[in-house]
Design a protein that fits this description.
Blueprint (H helix, E strand, L loop, with lengths): L4 E14 L5 E15 L4 E5 L6 H8 L7 E6 L2 E2 L5 H10 E4 L13 H11 L8 H11 L16 H13 L5 E5 L7 H18 L2 E6 L2 H4 L5 E6 L2 E7 H6 L4 H8 L8 E3 L29 H5 L5 E2 L5 E2 L12 E3 L7 H9 L13 H8 L6
Parallel strand pairs: 3-8, 3-9, 6-7, 7-8
Antiparallel strand pairs: 1-2, 1-4, 4-5, 9-10, 10-13, 11-14, 12-13
Helix pairs in contact: 3-4, 5-6
This protein binds iron/sulfur cluster.
Length: 373
C-alpha cells in the first residue's frame, strides 16, 4: 500500500554567516538525509532535542521552505513538481498547527471570520452556509458556537489551541503537522488537547506528523516514532516496540528520563556526558559519538546506517547487536523509602492495617469506622 506521505533523502542546510564578500562562513546542516513515510489515519512522531531539525522537516514536507535534495511525495506525487493549481490544492490537504496558537491567529479577526476565511478561499461553503459550517467546526473542537464573535485575546491558551485546530480542520485536510502543539500549555490542559487530536483523527481519518521534544507526550499519541539527532533519524519504528525496547543509545537516554508511574518499577537514568555538538560542524562518523557511553574507534570515522528488522524497527548504530537490553527493573526493596512504602500502603484498600498508620483511631477513620472504642 502506498503511503499518504513518503519522504526520501530530504536535505536542507542553512547559511549561518557570511564573509564581507558574501561567501558562506558557516552552514547549519539542519536536515541531512531524512526518510520516512506516513500512512493515512496514523501518527508519526518526530522527536529529539531542540535544534535536531525536526521542525525544519515539518516545514519541508509542507513546502513552506524548499529542500536542497531529496523527495517528498504526497498521494504518490512529488510535491516539488506541483503546478500552481496543484500546490493550492496541497495547501488545503496538508495543514500545520504551531506551538503558539496566539501567534498563528489574526488578533483583529473574530473566530467566525478566522474560520470562514479558509472556507471562502478554498470554495468549501457558499456564503450563506459559512456561519453554520463555523458553528459545526467549533462544536467539533469542543467550543460553543456563541464564542464565534469573540477575538483570540478573549480565550485561554487551551481554547486558542482548539481554535487553531478548528482552523486547520476547517479545510478538510488529510495531513496535519503538529509542531509542539501542547508544549506551551499548562500540564492540566495538555491531555485535553491530545485527546481532542486523537478523537479528530478517529472521526476524520487524519494523519499527523507530531513534532515534540517530549517523549512522555509522544507516548500517548504516536503510532510510529522517528528519533532525530543533529539532522538525521537515528531510530524509527512502531511506537510500542520503540518505547518497550529502544535500540539506539540516544533513544535510550531520552526514554530513561521519563518517570514510570509505579513505585515498584524503575529505569536506570542514562545521563549523557561529553560535548553537545552543533549542527554547524557535526561530529564525523556517528554524530552521537561525542556523548555515547558505548563509543568505539569505528564510531568516530564511519557513519552507521539505519538497519531495519522485519517489523520495521530500525536503528543506526554499529554496536546494535552488542548493547545490553533496555530493562525496566523492579525497584530493590532495600532502596525504597519508608515514606513511599507508607503512602503506597495507604492507597491500597487491603493495606489499611495498624502497620500502615500510627494509631488505631487513624486506621478506623480510614476504614470509615466511627464512634467505636
Ligand atoms: Fe554509540 Fe557508536 Fe552506536 Fe554511535 S555507532 S550510537 S557512537 S555505539
Amino acid at each position: 500500500m502506498s503511503a499518504l506521505l513518503e519522504v526520501d533523502g530530504l536535505v536542507r542546510h542553512f547559511v549561518a554567516g557570511r564573509s564581507i564578500l558574501g561567501t558562506p562562513k558557516a552552514v547549519v546542516r539542519a536536515v541531512d538525509g531524512v526518510s520516512f513515510r506516513v500512512e493515512a489515519g496514523r501518527t508519526l512522531a518526530l522527536v529529539g532535542e531542540s535544534g535536531c531539525g525536526k521542525s525544519t522537516v515539518g516545514r519541508l514536507v509542507l513546502r513552506l521552505i524548499e529542500a536542497e535534495a531529496g523527495r517528498v511525495s504526497f498521494e504518490g506525487r512529488d510535491i516539488a513538481q506541483y503546478s500552481a493549481e496543484e500546490l493550492r490544492a496541497f495547501r488545503r490537504k496538508a495543514q500545520i498547527i504551531f506551538q503558539d496558537p496566539y501567534a498563528s491567529l489574526n488578533p483583529r479577526m473574530t473566530i467566525a471570520q478566522a474560520l470562514a476565511e479558509p472556507l471562502a478561499l478554498h470554495g468549501l461553503a457558499e456564503a450563506g452556509q459559512r456561519r453554520q459550517r463555523v458553528d459545526d467546526i467549533l462544536r467539533l473542537v469542543g467550543l460553543e458556537p456563541r464564542f464565534a464573535q469573540r477575538y483570540p485575546h478573549e480565550f485561554s491558551g487551551g481554547q486558542r489551541q482548539r481554535i487553531a485546530i478548528a482552523r486547520a480542520i476547517a479545510v478538510e485536510p488529510k495531513l496535519i503537522v503538529c509542531d509542539e502543539p501542547v508544549s506551551a500549555l499548562d500540564v492540566s490542559i495538555r491531555s485535553q488537547i491530545l485527546n481532542l487530536l486523537r478523537d479528530l483523527q478517529r472521526q476524520l481519518g487524519l494523519a499527523y506528523i507530531f513534532i515534540s521534544h517530549d517523549l512522555a507526550v509522544v507516548k500517548h499519541v504516536a503510532d510510529d516514532v522517528a528519533v532525530m539527532n543533529l539532522g538525521q533519524i537515528v531510530e524509527t519504528g512502531p511506537a510500542a516496540a520503540l518505547f518497550e525496547q529502544p535500540r539506539h543509545p540516544y533513544s535510550r537516554a531520552l526514554l530513561s528520563a521519563i518517570p514510570i508511574p509505579s513505585p515498584s518499577r524503575e529505569r536506570t537514568r542514562v545521563v549523557l556526558s561529553g560535548e553537545l555538538p552543533s549542527a554547524i560542524d557535526p561530529p564525523s562518523g556517528c554524530r552521537f559519538h561525542t556523548r555515547c557511553p558505548y563509543v568505539i574507534d569505528r564510531c568516530r570515522t564511519e557513519q552507521p546506517v539505519l538497519g531495519a528488522d522485519a517489523t520495521g524497527h530500525a536503528a543506526a548504530c554499529h554496536r546494535i547487536s552488542e548493547l545490553p537490553a533496555f530493562a525496566v527493573a523492579a525497584r530493590d526493596a532495600g532502596t525504597r523509602s519508608a515514606t513511599l512504602d507508607r503512602l503506597t500502603a495507604a492507597f491500597t484498600a487491603k493495606s489499611f492495617t495498624a502497620k500502615s498508620f500510627s494509631t488505631k483511631s487513624e486506621v478506623q477513620r480510614r476504614q470509615g469506622v466511627h464512634g467505636q472504642g
